[in-house]
Amino acid sequence: QVQLVESGGGLVQAGGSLRLSCLVSGNIFSINVMGWYRQAAGKQRELVATITSGGGTNYADFVKGRFTISRDYAKRTLSLQMNSLKPEDTAVYYCYAFVRGAYWGQGTQVTVSS
Q1: What does the alpha-carbon distance between residue 113 and residue 1 come to, in Å, rounded to a whole number?
Q2: pLDDT tens, residue by residue, 78-104
Q3: Per-residue pLDDT for 29 more than 90?
């Protein structure tokens, strides 16, 4: 079993930065893939970035060069550094983990004002 708790969301002006964190409970070493998804109001949830157990990363085109995903096993944390934020990045951001099934956090709101 894995539990995920996000933090770090908030309100920021366009061009600003935020860092999201996801604290992982359970056997973090058993997780195959971790990542971040987001869901804007009235839209479907979409992939933002993923990182595999081997350290490979994947980013959605709309965040490449602006967002960086990372993990720290010692701190049991998955992070998403978000720079050069745009109003269209406004969404609820969800932490995700896959280990014999998908696990989701409760989400954290990110609002970018123009």
Answers
A1: 37
A2: 999 999 999 999 999 999 999 889 999
A3: no
Question: What is each CA distance from 25 to 3, 21, 41, 76, 110, in whole angstroms?
Answer: 5, 13, 29, 7, 23
Determine the Cα–Cα distance for residues 72 and 70; give it in Å rounded to an integer.
7
* Nearest CA among 36, 78, 40, 88 for reference residue 60: 36
Considering only CA atoms, give the Rg of the chain: 13
What does the alpha-carbon distance between residue 47 and residue 60 come to, in Å, rounded to a whole number?
6
Kindly give the pairing relationship between strand 77-82 and strand 18-26: antiparallel
The token duo for 43 is: 């839209």
Q: What percent of the chain has pLDDT over 90?
A: 93
